[in-house]
Amino acid sequence: MENRPGRPTEPPRSPDEGPSGGGPAVDPYELAGLGVTMGAAIALFALGGNWLDGRLGTRPLFVLLGVAVGFTAGFLSMYTRLTGRGGRRERGKPDGE
């Protein structure tokens, strides 16, 4: 793109910005990993609830509780990874940055 008089030039984009320049670029593999984590948490807790229901004879109770707990665990995992509140910080940066 050539610089014409009267036409502002675009500022250079940092590597962290997406194609529109509005925010950080999103890694599709990271998003896929979030979905797999959510599904695995739900499946594992539901299977555990099914096993417990079989042992105790309380058919749908612990499966439903397992799905609810799995969804909650998966959502919290997703939330902490997306908001950056997972406790992992870059070295050399204070807490506020």
Describe it for me?
It is a single chain. This protein has helices at 28-56, 61-83. The protein is an all-alpha fold and 97 residues long. The protein has a domain at 28-83. The model has no long low-confidence stretch (mean pLDDT 82).
Oligomer: single chain
Tally the helices: what do you get?
2
Determine the N-to-C terminus distance: 35 Å
Report the mean per-residue pLDDT as an integer. Answer: 82
Q: State the helicity in percent bands.
A: 40-55%
Query: Beta-strand percentage?
Result: under 5%
- Taken in chain order, the helices and strands follow as HH
Q: Enumerate the spans where pLDDT stays under 50 for 5 or more consecutive residues.
A: none
List how many beta strands DSSP finds: 0
Largest sheet: none
| Global structural class | mainly alpha
Query: How would the global form be characterised?
Result: rod-shaped
**Radius of gyration in whole Å, from Cα?**
22 Å
Write the layout of secondary structure elements.
Layout: H1 28-56, H2 61-83
Helix pairs in contact: 1-2
Note the main attributes of this structure.
97 residues; 54% helix; rod-shaped
Brief write-up:
It contains 2 helices and no strands. With 97 residues, it is mainly alpha-helical.
